[in-house]
Amino acid sequence: MTERRLPWWFFPITRAVTAASLRALVGTVGLPPAVVGATQRVLRVIDPTPPGSLEFLSAEWIAAAREIREEYAGRETIPPPAMKVNYVVTDVPSSSSPILAHTDTTSGTVEFELEHIEGAEVTVTLPYAAARAILVDADATAAMQMFATGKIQVEGDVTKLLALGAVPMDPLALEVAERIRAITA
């Protein structure tokens, strides 16, 4: 069998190069959330741990996400609906116990921190993979599938969660979400 020579312009594209190209595309082009979510699922397969990424829901990840949100504080043009949501995240890879977290938007900005908050209208119990898909990748399709199959359980006023999906996304919130997505392993 003869050795086959490839032209000089042919080179194999590595997974890392493909992932970097996809991340750059998502970061520069205004894509709909469903496309961004699908792209993030592809990125998790081809490059599961981007360089400099932090484990989702770790103390370091929470601190880095807080710093990103603080950079954009006060610049929001469309405030999120006011609500307090507690999360119980199960099946956490690095922990034998569930992680408790919350989102509070009553101040007009999104605050996501560890531990539960008093006066939450809704408590959502969900597995780690679902929490990442919803809170980092903004994958509404995955959220609906997991809710329909019973993997996500909601206690309290479900209409509050539905109201969140009905409000248009602030362009700055999308930018914040993309930056947080970029630091997440």
Q: Brief description of this entry?
A:
With 185 residues, the chain is an alpha+beta fold. It has helices spanning 15-28, 33-46, 59-71, 128-135, 140-148, 158-166, 171-183, and strands spanning 84-90, 99-104, 111-114, 122-127, 153-156.
What do you see in this structure?
- With 185 residues, this protein is of the alpha+beta class.
- The protein has a single domain (15-183), classed as SCP2 sterol-binding domain (Nonspecific Lipid-transfer Protein, Chain A, 2-Layer Sandwich).
- The chain has helices spanning 15-28, 33-46, 59-71, 128-135, 140-148, 158-166, 171-183, and strands at 84-90, 99-104, 111-114, 122-127, 153-156.
- A five-stranded mixed β-sheet has the order 3-2-1-4-5.
- A hairpin with a 6-residue loop joins strand 2 (99-104) and strand 3 (111-114).
- It is globular.
- The model has no long low-confidence stretch (mean pLDDT 81).
Secondary structure: elements and pairs:
Blueprint: H1 15-28, H2 33-46, H3 59-71, E1 84-90, E2 99-104, E3 111-114, E4 122-127, H4 128-135, H5 140-148, E5 153-156, H6 158-166, H7 171-183
Parallel strand pairs: 1-4
Antiparallel strand pairs: 1-2, 2-3, 4-5
Helix pairs in contact: 1-2, 3-7
